[in-house]
Design brief:
10 helices; two-stranded antiparallel ribbon; about 300 residues; D-Maltodextrin-Binding Protein, domain 2; 3 domains; alpha/beta
Length: about 300
Amino acid sequence: MTHPDLNLLVALDALLAEGNVTRAAKRLRLSPSAMSRTLARLRATTGDPLLVRAGRRLVPSPRALELRAIVGPAVSQALAMLSPQERLNVPTVKRTFTLQTSDGFVENFGPRLLAEVAAEAPEITLHFVQKVTRDGNRLREGTVDFETGVVGADLGPEIRTQSLFRDRLVGVVRKSHPLSRGKMTAARYLAEKHILIHRGEAEKGPVDADLAALGLERKIGTVLSGFAAALTLARSTDLVATVPDRHTVNLRTGLHTFALPFPSRQLTVSLLWHPRMDADPAHRWLREKIRTVCTCNVAR
């Protein structure tokens, strides 16, 4: 099947609007002879004369009258689709964005992010969903728009990332826990039972990798999937939670926090998204808003 030249729609729009070959040619910056040839092609393609001479002027055929109401809007829409997007009018954007994050991120950055988005873009709705893996599949599938966290080794190379802030691991116990008093040492830390926060990765986690590099291993008392649950458990048991510092500031209220008594890596928390959203103005605006909110919270 031979597909018609869609460029003919632009010429047809000009001819039907002007009703004159010379004026249509001038409108499209063509020569009158080129426009005459284009009109001949249009007649052959549509099987209709379209514009018929009546004295010194051209009059539209019935088919041309039908097309005139359709072609103009169609050409306008096509040109809009193929033109750069206009500057975003943030207050009028009506969208829903889904962020896959840890519970600690929502607790510490969610209130300010929601407040600023509501103030500047009241028609944008944010949905937060719990992060369970770090492979980026939900970004690829389009079921989430953003993800936050430490970039995993199994993340696909096409996923875009932007660093938000640096974090470090800290130990957390209840206020009356024996570790809340006296000098912290690796021996005291390892003598207690610990909460392993595990989201399905093959390795246990960064703290276990740091200990393993020193030939050490902690005793795991239980396994959970989130920071909030780990800190809730630490609040009412003798278990030790080891969590990211800045992610869990608000969650640790009323608990005792201590620096880890052994060398531990810093964590780079990043914002992740799929490249198909790179040029989307609203997505780009929200990316910058998330980055700003995280930077401000960390600076405080």
